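Pipeline run #58 for the internal structure catalog. This entry was flagged by the ingest filter as a single-chain record with no existing model, so it goes straight to prediction. Upstream metadata was stripped on purpose; only the residue string is passed forward. Reviewer on rotation: M.T. Logging verbosity set to normal.
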Amino acid sequence: MNTLEIDLLGAPIIQLNRQPVTFESRKATALLAYLAMSGKPHQRSELATLLWPDSDNKRARGALRYTLSILQGALGKEWLQSDRATIGLAGDTACTVDARQFQELLTSGRDHLHTPDTVCLNCIQPINDAVALYRDDFLTGFGLRDSVNFDEWQFFRREGFRHQLVNALRRLIRFHTQQADYQQALISARRLLQLDPLQESVQREAMQLYAHSGQWELALRQYDECVRLLEAELSVPPSPATTQLFEQIRGQRLGAVQRPTTSQTPASVTFSPSARPHNLPAATMPILGREPEIAAIRALLNEPHCRMVTLLGPGGIGKTRLAHQVAIDLCHAPEAHFARGVYFVPLTAVESADLLVTAIANALELPFNGPKAPQAQLRQYLREQHFLLVLDNFEQLVSSAPLLAELLNAAHGLKLLITSRERLNLHEEWLYEAQGLPLPPLDAHESSTALKANG
């Protein structure tokens, strides 16, 4: 039987019957990756907008037909199903996608009788298998120069997978520490440090794990490495907590860091999860000059009777950056009540209510199972949960806005922050008109900094 393997965690690798396949067009790779991740057919108009956003409809659809022919020529028509309206991967073929396997493995424990952040013996193998699949970040080294829509989709997918990997590694550290298997815990801690060596909390975890396993010299070396990195990259000293731990280890006295037992995690081992679960990518640059807008939007979302805020404004004024910053702030704000998390849902390439349901479920890592309709499963999942969903670029979905009212009526702990060029005209909607970057008098250097940060 023919097989198709699509590996997207890392640089994209496509293998047909275990033989590598390359395409003459990067757009063909992008199209295959997008179809592989969704696992369902997409409207041709949606795919044309995703990959050729600056072309008119006729030229974009012509380019899509040509790109589809490249895929069919390299893979064979059996792997793709298409008609005049839609294109997708054939559902009855032996096709595997590593990124989807990664997600399925991490969500396989949803039916276990414990909270999501707890780890049981049945969780460990799927988590280990998922971590092993993660060669590198999603589509590492791949990009399209002329498709901001695809680049945005790729960016949020990459950050979402990276966030899932971090959570998986933290769960492994927790489990192995509970079992007093410090060497296995250290393997995951070192992997975390490869992802972000400037995370002091993870540096402290590694120091503690070395010390608990009797490797005092390695614990001290870990501290030295932490000091070196912080000085070289940030020009800051280690935090008092890190310095205090170093002094305890140097004196080989871990009275405050008791050896863990199999029944509980030691209080001293700090896992430092985010204040609330989220899939938000880290802000790469500060957002300057919009503090009043951020404060006003936060105040609206903290208003008990406000369930949905629409950031309204034309394209290009920074609605996405503004919503993203508000979401980051609310992840850590003590006054916010989104106990189950804050999740970003990019909608640039989504054009129907069915795809909107899928996009929200993907952001929440919610698999659909059984005969019940996906929309009903989403309503049931959100019921009694306290989420903030950030729905970005909703303007092409205004006709699907009644779905949002249904979700709000079903889930009383749900709030929505939406960016759109058009109002949704729902009873639940509170409008906030985004003004764009204000331009107070600045000197030349400050003006340049502000424009670069918000451009």
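catalog note: The chain has three domains: 4-98, 99-250, 291-433.
catalog note: The chain has 16 helices and twelve strands.
status: ready for reviewer M.T.
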